[in-house]
Amino acid sequence: MTTLYRNLIDGKMIETAATMEVVNPANEQVIGLVPACGKDELDQAVAAARRAFKTWSRTPIDERRAAIMAISGAIKENADELYRLLTSEQGKPHEQAKGEIFGAAGMSAAQSTLSLEEVVNEDSDQRLSRTRRVPVGVVGGIVPWNFPVMMAIQKIVPAMLSGCTIVLKPSPFTPLTTLRIAELIADKVPAGVVNIITGEDSLGPMITEHPDIDKITFTGSTATGKKIMEGASADLKRITLELGGNDASIVMPDADPKKVAEQLFWASFSNAGQICVAAKRVYIHEDIYDELSQAIANYAKTVVVGDGSQQGTGVGPIQNKKQYDRVLELIQDAKDNGYKFLTGGDADPSGTGYYVPITILDNPPEDARIVAEEQFGPVMPLMKFSTESEVIERANNSEYGLAGAVWTADTDKGVEIAEQLETGTVWVNEYLHLSPFSPFGGHKQSGFGAEYGIDGLKEFTYPQVITVKRDAEVA
Ligand code: NAD
Fold first, then answer.
1. Which of 167, 184, 249, 378 is the most exposed place for a label (fewest CB within 10 A)?
2. Cα angle vertex 240, ends 237, 243, to 5°?
3. Which CATH number does 3-243+446-465 carry?
4. Given this model, what pLDDT does residue 61 score?
């Protein structure tokens, strides 16, 4: 029997008459049913969040921290069940699912230690002026399908810590683990502070346009981000947008191909390439291009593509059919244009499960669709470059500006190049490291605002300046 999952509204787990199916991308079997909420359920969730805001916004920060720690603890204690469920709905191999579950628990705990201190602007005989941060109110959180748990947590935790309440909508493709967490935390968080509701994509604009929601925090595609910005403009909601990327990695001639091949591989292929910051364009200096591209292709042959619940799988299926078709379309376009493949490129769409073989392209042109567009799949175009200035220009030649990386034995040179890249994050000699204490956000069309760290927390607050005239004559 298919499990029926419930939503969390006002501290209670609720069902709806209408439901939606959730499919395991490894075998296309229906593995769960979730509520298909519409305007009525959204109104109930927003009203509950509004009621809870009155008390939660005045609850001492230590109590708010304790509630966040209870969420972190519930995730950790149930990690075994949660990571298996996550693999079954998202597709990522068990080890990577474990990383996401423990990462979400760890990020929550670490972020709960942040605080927004008051700033004294003036302390003179005439006046005392200070800036405090006040919570914006009710937050609408909208989450994608690639890291459903991590993305949900990185919206819930800073909202709670800042004194806001939240109505969160998981992706219709991957709501199950988040709803199981909702059940686990229902009695650990005051009613209405965290509400989690599921629905089709059409529920998204209802959240964006809801008159009693004060802020939207969104992670997803740039196309949807633009619609959200438009929808939120009606009543000038605050917005944080974490959007797409076409992240460039630059490998300098002094990098050792034997040492970087495997690291570069996983920079591209973790989570089957479905990471906003995955290495989606890899520029290799011409002096080491042949050796490094061969080393990456050789390593790729040792990695198993398959069902993430099976031991030994390194790369799971694409999460959903729409994205699967898109990745196949990009690969077909590369074939039609006669680009060279070092490996992969031969998916079998008639099989069961959304599997795409590890696909590495050998020096396709800069304007190839598979280079110029965000692939969001297990695809890695390797390109040759000759000079530093040329590669910086090519890396920056994108409407996106999310992340990038430089690989070199000379870290000073690495930093010099990193500072010229037009992205919110640049790694030198590592990849995918995100800290709960550093802001993460996109430049250009990769985003608006930031998550994590003090900058991320500030996005859930307004500054309020209180000025007291000390030498006033009023009485
Ligand atoms: P998506 O934009 O299709 O959907 C994201 C969420 O928005 C889902 O919950 C969806 O139901 C909802 N939604 C859809 N239409 C909406 C609308 N008109 N108004 C409001 N909400 C709407 O994105 P996706 O396909 O789920 O995720 C993949 C994309 O997310 C990629 O482009 C990837 O780069 C990006 N992403 C970015 C980050 C980041 O931190 N920058 C992280 C992960 C993924």
1. 184
2. 130
3. 3.40.605.10
4. 97
Specify the pLDDT at position 1: 65
Residue to mutate (ligand 1; options 198, 201, 446; most atoms within 8 A of CB): 201
Instruction: For a ligand 1 pocket test, name from 276, 376, 444, 445 the mutation site with the most ligand atoms within 8 angstroms of its C-beta.
Output: 276
Cα Rg of the chain, angstroms: 23
Distance (angstroms) between ligand 1 centre and the Cα of 243 equals 7
Atom of ligand 1 nearest to the CA of 220: 30
Active site residues: 242, 276
24 CA to centre of own chain: 20
Q: Where are the domains of the chain?
A: 3-243+446-465, 247-428
Same fold flag, 3-243+446-465 and 247-428? no
Work out which ligand 1 atom sits closest to the CA atom of 145. Answer: 26
Q: What is the mean pLDDT of each run of 10 residues along the chain (475 residues)?
A: 93 97 98 98 98 98 98 98 98 98 98 97 98 98 98 98 98 98 98 98 97 98 97 97 98 98 98 98 98 98 98 98 97 97 90 97 98 98 98 98 98 98 98 97 98 98 98 90
Domain 247-428 adopts which CATH fold? Aldehyde Dehydrogenase; Chain A, domain 2 (3.40.309)
Distance 218 CA to ligand 1 centre (A): 7
Distance between Cα 169 and ligand 1 center (Å) = 11
Question: Judging by DSSP bridges, how do beta strands 247-251 and 403-407 pair with one another?
Answer: parallel
- Fill in the amino acid letter for 223: A
The pLDDT of residue 347 is 80
pTM above 0.90, yes or no: yes
Contact predicate 122/150, CB 8 Å:
no
> How far apart are the two ends of the chain, measured CA to CA in Å?
76
